[in-house]
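Notebook, p. 212. Picked up where the previous page left off. The plan for this session was modest: take the two constructs that came back from the sequencing core last week, fold each one, and keep the raw output in the notebook itself so nobody has to go hunting through shared drives later. Recording the first one now, exactly as returned: residue sequence, then the structure token string.
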Amino acid sequence: MTSCLLVVDIGNTHIVLGVFEGAKLMAHWRIATKQKRTEDELAIIINELFGLKELDIKRVNDMVISCVSPPVLPSFIIFAQNTFSCEPLVIGPGVKTGVSINIDNPREVGADRIANAAGALASHKPPFIIVDFGTAITIDMISADSEYMGGAIVPGVRLSLNALYHHAAKLPEVEFIKPPSVIGRNTVHSMQSGAYYGYASLVDGIVSRMKEHIGPPYPMVIATGGEAGLIAPASETITIVEDNLTLVGLRAIHEKNRTR
């Protein structure tokens, strides 16, 4: 029976899990990030997720993790030790990624951003810009020499909408969807228009300035993350959407560090 790899991307709002058989992504799931989950609770949740896809969790023999929410990490490490009898590979200093980090302090770069770069390098020829729509939106530049050159960080779409709801007394909580028109004819549609077209324009503006800064050959622009598929059609600069870019990158990093 072929063994499988469990990849885990722990974000501030969501945790995305995927299971690979070789290079094939068999299934993936998204659950809420909760700091107080125990390793036993994780075991119940993850076993149930495998069962829903009719996958045998006993086929998993290793695990790789990227994490930007440190309090959540210990429970996942203990879960891996108890369930798979392995020490999971945690993305951080000393781990081979295939990405050269060319910024002032390489230790500051989030593990998810490095995983994104590794995922893009596994499928595309650099240079490229990666836009990740998460709790925060990151826009990162990877050079033709596969160097992580830095980027930009802005508050995410839902974070901004929640801030409006909590700090503007007459503005309601709204669903983030494409509005009927760029010109909103009521408060809800106006907020949706501002978020949808505003963030598409924000991405286009930063990407265009990055391209102007580095000059030709201009990089392709890869979008990933929860809102990528929704916002990309309104963007003039996004080339392609790859929903599972981080998971693919985690697998690629695992391949560089584990020998069997």
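Okay, moving on. Second construct, recorded in the same format:
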Amino acid sequence: MSRICRIESVTLREHQRVLAVRVHCDDGLIGHGETYDKVPGSQAALHGTLAPLLLGQDSRAINALTTLCFDNIRYHGFQGAEWRAFSAIELALWDIQGKRLGVPVVELFGGAVRADLPCYNTCISYGPCNDYQYWQEDPAGLARSLLADGYRMAKVWPFDRFSEASLGQHLSQAECAQGAATLAAMREVDGGALALGLEGHSRWALPAARRIVTACEDLGLEFLEDLVPAHDVAALAALNQSTRIPLVGSETLFTRFALRELIERAAVDIVMVDPMWCGGLGETRACAQLAATYGLPVILHNLGGPVAHAAACQIAATIPNLWAVESSRALSDHLYPQLGSYQPRVSASGRLALPTGPGLGAELPAAWFCGPSLCASEGNGAA
């Protein structure tokens, strides 16, 4: 038996979108997990709702603990803070199991189906890396910079700024042309050497989204992501019927149960899943397998800290129908070095190597688990 005796969480001052989690067992093993965004709610759910269920339980019983927690959450609605929080716990439990057996987590899921991972750079900013400003001010320069760093694919969102005035209901022809010009400038570098995806952040009504699709049709884009909200499956399906560009969706739908209608109604061509939101690594695999039964590939959404990145890579390596892992050079080059030794690098061919070492292959130093943002739960629990 290896009982969970303490659960800790802390908000990272260097990146306050991340909630870092540690799970302690009475045999001395410690596992690391993460979730991100909506951190105050996730931290409260972790210690208020989940910790009483998990303390005192056998850390090896990952399937049983997943079932226990899901059964206690779902009848109040599971697509929110509680399931983000559980995702971090589930990552930590796999980390513990890998450390217990002395193997990387990828081996706990049957081993890798590929030696390295396709990826793309999401063009956000952090520290001295200003990719978000770069693509707005000099999109061709950003494309050249990414290619020089080894990236072969990137994602930007040049239409978002036009959504605010009309709350996404209307996009003028002039605004549409401006957004498309940004994409065209990036695509023209080195004869289209940088593949490009468009992020929509669920900001558009269907007529405006159709106008964006028309503007992008001849730009050679790899995908269009979340142009309309993913819960509007009918609108997504209608949009998908009107374009040759693959539609991606959506990390905002947690678990295979939420994704099922999206897939069954042919509303997307590529399924996006976030291991740090959907319930962890086991549920990520389940979502990927569901997509595979419909002939669809998956992208792993991934914009957390180093533990989240390592976890996404570990499970991505086991997924035959993987399309790509999301990454960000702003975070990997400038945030992760502040938070430990894990720093993913992109190869000259634009691919990510798998993390090494037992467990997830990344963890935060113990010194980070202190200070006013630290919350801890310990004892025997109430389950």
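Notes on construct two before I forget. The longest helix spans residues 81-101.
Flagging for discussion at group meeting.
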